[in-house]
Amino acid sequence: MVKLTRREFLKLAAAGAAVATIPAAGRWLEPALAQEPKYWIVVCNGPTCAYMGGDKILEAVKSELGIDVGETTPDNKFHLETQPCLGACGTAPNMVVEDKLYSHMTPEKVKRILSELK
Predict the structure, then answer these.
(1) Could you list the residue range(s) of the whole structural domain that residue 46 is in?
(2) How many Cβ atoms sit within 10 Å of the Cβ of residue 10?
(3) Mean pLDDT score, 86-110
């Protein structure tokens, strides 16, 4: 059994890793993440979050940071990914920054959270 930190799990999940590939994932993921961003952001794009406005959350993050999904800000502070489910559908739409889940997100909350982290 391989034990992963929450941050490692989120990275693998955002990269689309299947459970079977998790033990080897560090080998193929590491070169792409040689310079670790300070904040890893994952926006849920699963069906419930999408229905509840998750697309607006993703657009707010992209607009606020000036990056697209899979990109890192030039200062290496933020990296953005999406995940088809964060397992918190009852509080959709959701976003994770590092190991903190943010629920019932709105574009205004995105701006406030990101401005606090900048």
Answers:
(1) 36-117
(2) 21
(3) 93
Q: How many CB atoms lie within 10 A of CB 74?
A: 8
Most confident of 5-9, 80-84, 108-112: 108-112
Quick check: helix, strand or coil at residue 83? strand
Between strands 100-102 and 39-44, the pairing is unpaired
Tokens of 94: 């959701």
- Output the six-digit token pair for 91: 């509080």
At residue 82's C-alpha, the angle toward residues 80 and 88, to 5°, is 120
| Amino acid at position 14, single letter | A
CATH number, domain with residue 97:
3.40.30.10
Q: How many domains does the chain have?
A: 1
In tens, the pLDDT along 43-83 reads: 999 999 999 999 999 999 999 999 999 999 999 999 999 99
For 85-118, give one letter per residue: b (16+ CB within 10 A) or e.
ebebbeebbbbbbeeeebeebebebbeebbeeee
- Give yes or no for a contact between 94 and 105, defined as CB atoms under 8 angstroms apart: yes
